[in-house]
Amino acid sequence: MKSSHGISVKLIIALFILFSSVLINSCQKREYDNPYDEHVLASAWAPYDLQISDISITEKKLEWKCDASNVENFIIDRKAGNSEWQLNYRIIPAGTFETTDNDIIPSSDITYQYRIYATAGTRHSAPAEISINFACPSPFKDPRNGKSYKAVQIGTQCWMAGNLNYQTGNSWCYDNNSSYCDIYGRLYDWATLMNGASSSNAVPSGVQGICPDGWHVPSDAEWTILVDYLSGDGIAGGAMKEAGYTHWNRPNTGATNSSGFSTLPGGYRSIYGSFYYMGSSAYFGSSSEYDASYAWGRILYYDFDDVSRSYYYKDYGRSVRCLRDF
Fold first, then answer.
1. How far is residue 123's CA from residue 61's CA, in Å, rounded to a whole number?
2. Which residue in 137, 302, 156 sits closest to 228, CA to CA?
3. Does residue 23 register a pLDDT over 50?
4. DSSP string across 129-158
5. pLDDT bracket for residue 220 (50, 70, 90)
6. CB atoms closer than 10 angstroms to residue 187
7. In this structure, are residues 269 and 321 in contact, taking their beta carbons and an 8 Å threshold?
8. pLDDT band at 59, cuts 50/70/90?
9. Are 47 and 128 in contact (CB under 8 A)?
10. Which pairs count as long-range contacts for 52-55, CB under 8 Å and 24+ apart, including other chains?
């Protein structure tokens, strides 16, 4: 049978069926993260948010995320300094999103590189990648509470570039307002700062105190090394202070932050529970006591570019900067 235009009815029906089939298939929802679907981009089911945190100075934890279904394994390649890539350094089964590297040499001459893939059958996802020098890792995560900090190499020392914000013992947020801790860190009395350790003026201090693993509380002598490297206590404050007026009061004399130390004016807490001088001054503690009642510390001011070395009453709450162990 033919239509009035001479086209076979069977042909029309066949074309209709074919068109409908194509239309239905094109409208089916594709599993965007299905690693077995060859049409899905390798980047769509890749791991992401690869991060590294300290377990110890020679052992690190790697963590990542992956939302894809049907992944079989995660494969990690590793490169230390100028050596060749170690392929398949770790093979981690699906459902596990962390592993450790316990072969770390904390040297400023070695940068470690990692790349992680998800696998499914013969397919590999796109990689997540990270590079870090564990001698002065920046940023790094405190594994105790997951908070991240920047770090900065100044001369031979590696300093935290932000004030410690780890809640323990006698420690306070300025004005007991938790939002200030997010900016300025916590204020610690000396006993909490030391966490049971004895006074030390050694280089390094050897006092972990309340610092994360792989870091320590700086001694008075280590503070002096920093200040001397920045041309002495008469002008080092300018190189250490965050520039501008976002946190510091005007005139913020001499502030360039050329060292990257990024001092913020967190103020201090008195023995009577009052808080003073946020915006105007930064007060840091050390592992070195002056005598049974006082400890050595450093102060930076909004209206001077020097760094003041002075002793303070141990029950006062001060900011803490940790120093890297190496």
1. 26
2. 156
3. no
4. EEEE-TTS-SSEE-TTT--EE-EEEETTEE
5. very high
6. 28
7. no
8. confident
9. yes
10. 52/114, 52/130, 52/132, 52/137, 52/140, 52/141, 53/140, 53/141, 53/142, 53/143, 54/137, 54/140, 54/141, 54/142, 54/143, 54/212, 54/213, 54/214, 54/215, 55/100, 55/102, 55/143, 55/213
Which residue bears the tokens 């239509």?
A: 3
Tokens 């190496």 map to which residue? Answer: 326
pLDDT for residue 64 is more than 90: yes
Q: The tokens 């696998």 sit on which residue? A: 119
Listed in sequence order, the DSSP H helices in the chain are: 9-27, 178-184, 190-194, 220-229, 236-240
Residue 273 makes CB contacts below 8 A (sequence gap 6+) with none
Q: How far apart are alpha carbons 32 and 19 in whole angstroms?
A: 25
Check whether the bond before 204 is cis (ω within 30° of 0): yes
Residue written as token pair 């069926």: 17
> Would you call the peptide bond into 251 cis, given omega within 30 degrees of 0 as the criterion?
yes
Tokens representing 79 are 């490169």
Give the Cα separation of 309 and 62 in Å (integer). Answer: 40
Bridging pattern class, strands 86-93 and 48-56: unpaired
